[in-house]
Specification:
Blueprint (H helix, E strand, L loop, with lengths): L17 H4 L3 E2 L1 E6 L5 E6 L2 E6 L2 E8 L3 H9 L1 E5 L6 H6 L10 H4 L4 E2 L8 E2 L4 E11 L11 E13 L4 E2 L2 E2 L1 H4 L2 E3 L5 E3 L14
The chain binds flavin mononucleotide.
Amino acid sequence: MFFTPETRDREVLPFDPVKAIIAPRPIGWISTLSKDGLANLAPYSFFNLVGGRPPMLMFSSEGYKDTANNAIETGEFVYNYASRSLEEAMNASSIPAPAGISEFDHCGIERSESRLVAPPRVANALANLECKVTDVIEPKTVEGEKTGSVMVIGQVVGIHIDDQAIRAGRFDVTMTDPVTRLGYLDFGFSDGLHEMPRPEWTE
Ligand SMILES: Cc1cc2nc3c(=O)[nH]c(=O)nc-3n(C[C@H](O)[C@H](O)[C@H](O)COP(=O)(O)O)c2cc1C
């Protein structure tokens, strides 16, 4: 079948399949601080690393939600690594908490101070990346209209790794077991890891 996003046959595909086609997606579990000092925490699966040197990452918000507003206003955010043991807490933190309520408190998620930025980090996460905002992009349609989404890009300025997550000199993805977002309300884990060497050009 072929269709354009506007002409999807809703009898055959009642739910938008695009997010299931771009899967698995890592989860950017993002903590921020409002300008009044309230700690905020929410998951974003429109999220990825966008550069390695220096490490840069982005999350994209469908509308100006608290995370994007806080990151833009304060210029800082923290990425928290969501592993299997934190899956429920990560999902719980997506609750649309009313103004003045911190998801850290509402969901009983322990926080620790960050070193180089003001927003706190998830204490039990096996890694946290402290970030400073570098770019804010409002993606537009091909007609040049605003989509309502906002993409926030940040540079990683500080890295926390729990020592138990390091094995043989590597951040061990099997041990740390990151949650990934599949389509719809489906989630997965990185089971069945294998190495694949890069191809080399030989004349
Ligand atoms: C796993 C997961 C991934 C999510 N990814 C996104 C996303 O990429 N963009 C978005 O706008 N909302 C996303 N959401 C919904 C937000 O987490 C939710 O709207 C949340 O209340 C936003 O909180 P905030 O206003 O404190 O930023 C996701 C929710 C879950 C559970």
